[in-house]
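WARN retry 2 of 3 for item q-0093 after timeout on previous attempt; input resubmitted unchanged.
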Amino acid sequence: MAKEVDVGEIEEVSDEPKGKKAAKHDDGAADLEKVTDYVEEAEISSQDISVAMKVVNDRMQQEANAKLQKEKELSRVKISKEDVDLIVNEMEIPRSAAERKLREHKGDLVEALIDLTN
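OK item q-0093 returned
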């Protein structure tokens, strides 16, 4: 036989007391506040952009000058045609790469070969 229950008599059953839920919710809100704290960002002006671009362009120019200077120094190094031929035939690499390695090691065949095998 089914027992009729008045809707007003039904109570919610909960594992946790109501006070504890409210505290948990507050902790979450505090954590959320920590996450969402931020500092207002200032607008970037066109002057700031031009200064930044100047710095980047200067750095790129310095790197290009350093590379050009290194190429000039490498081109002054005397290398032997026989050494280049040996590296090209033995290592099976292009002549330009063989010449470059020899120049980087100031014409030292042994050092160039060691560098190529590592």
